[in-house]
Amino acid sequence: MGLSIAKDCIRRMHGDLQLIMVADADVCFRIELPLTTAENE
Fold this sequence. Notes:
By secondary structure, the protein is α+β, with helices and mostly antiparallel strands. It has one helix at 2-12; strands spanning 16-20, 28-32.
């Protein structure tokens, strides 16, 4: 349930949440969020 909420919040900020396969790691997530400046607002 927590991961679903996190994914929803990230998508609302126009980002993405991905599950990434990494050697010697149980779980690894990648969060991508757009970077904006004051000029873009």
